[in-house]
Structures are given as C-alpha cells and as structure tokens.
Predict the structure.
Amino acid sequence: MTGRMFAAMVLATGAAIALAAGAGRADPFATAVVSYTAGTGAAAGYDDPTTALGGPERFTGEGVWPGDVTMFNPPWGTDELVSIGEGGSLIVAFDHPVTDAPANPYGLDLLVFGNTGFIDSGGTAGGLFGSGAGTVRVSQDGSTWYPLAGVEADGVWPTQGYTDSSGPYAADGSTPSDATKPVAPSVTWSGKTYAELLAAYDGSAGGTGIDLGPTGLPWIQYVEISVPVGAGSAAEIDALADVAPEPGTLALLAVGAGAALARRRR
C-alpha cells in the first residue's frame, strides 16, 4: 500500500468517525413519513403513520389506565402506534445518514420500537406478547432497497420508558431511559424479574436492534417496514432510532487512526 493510499484510508476512517459523531448530534429519530399503506388486518384506529416519528412513548394509558411504559406495560394508545397489516407498509426517513459505525455498541446501528411486552408469569418474564410480523428494508435514496433477512421489526426488546420506574405497572418514573442505546444481545430475559431485567437493560429504552452490516451499505436514510401477505399478524410501530456511538470507543478509534497515520509518516 502506498503512502498516499494509506493516508486516504486513514482519512476515510476519520470521516466515518466524524459522520458517526455528527449523527449522534442530529435528531436521532425518524423525522418524516414517506408513505404508509395500512394493509389487511391492521388494528382499527391505529392508522396515523406520524406516530412513528420522534422518540418512543414513555407514558401510556392517559385517562384510562395511566402508567409508565415498561417492558411489561407497552404503549397501546391510538396516538402512540401505527399498525401495519398484511400487504401494508410504512416508509420513514431520517434527517441524516444512519451509519454502519464501528463505534456503535454491539455492532447495532438502528432500533425499532413496537408494542411488544413480557408476559407477567408470577412476577417474572414468562413469554413475549404483541410481537408480530414486520420485515425491514433500508435504502440510501428511497428507491433502491436492501432487505435485512431474519429481522422482526416488532420484536425484542420491549420499551422501557424510564430507568427508575419502581415496578412494571408503576407511574412514577422520572429519569428517561436512553432510546439510542440497544440492550446487549447477550442478555436473556426468560424467567427474570422486573428488577433483574431493568438492571440488564443498563439504561437502555429497549427496541429491536438492527445491524446494517449485512447490506454492505456504509449508511442509510430510509427504512421500510412491511408485512407480507399470509403473515397472519400485524406489526405495530412506535418509533425508530439511530444508535448512538459509544463515546469511549469513538475516541479510541480517532486516536488509533491518528497514531497509525503518524507511524506511517515516520
């Protein structure tokens, strides 16, 4: 590799790091609805696609059964979710590139929040309810699409609105969780209590974590969630978020790139 080629590589690495850092400073959530088709079997009344914009819900059931959104008490209001039935789809856009960034925790780049929740089995998570179909495709320009195989949009992990809600059905949370931080994929949920799961979330708001790596794209700006005909269920979507890079990792990558260039120059 020539010195010029090496310098270009380091500069590209630096640009990727800067892009990731810039994305973290932008609005981390989807900001525009491009299109929406409800499809067959979409939940009645859940037909406002703009509910998928902005951050995930943290408090639900106002005026009926108010409570913090927790992993056992997901959002359920018609002004909090949009439903996608068989043959339906939702396309949203971010106001910045969502990058496949090496500084992102666990290699995850995108989060999708739905209305799944853990089944309360005597105080522990005994199953997952509300999870449904929802295939995901991504695009840089809104025209050419790349599928993400094996990803269920409305899946684990259920949303946790606050880090300090005293119980799974409490209404006393005051410290918002981080909706740009994924739950560690190594976490297991079956049989765990609310307190154990809260500790395992480690400040995360949950959401289905998606790695953009399999697409081969360095970044995307559009996301499509659709439900195939014959899926037998609908998908309910609350929000989409750009995963924030870990500050420590970002700094190490920048230092490493600079050191490599300095060594090469010597």
Remarks:
- Helices lie at 3-25, 194-201, 247-265.
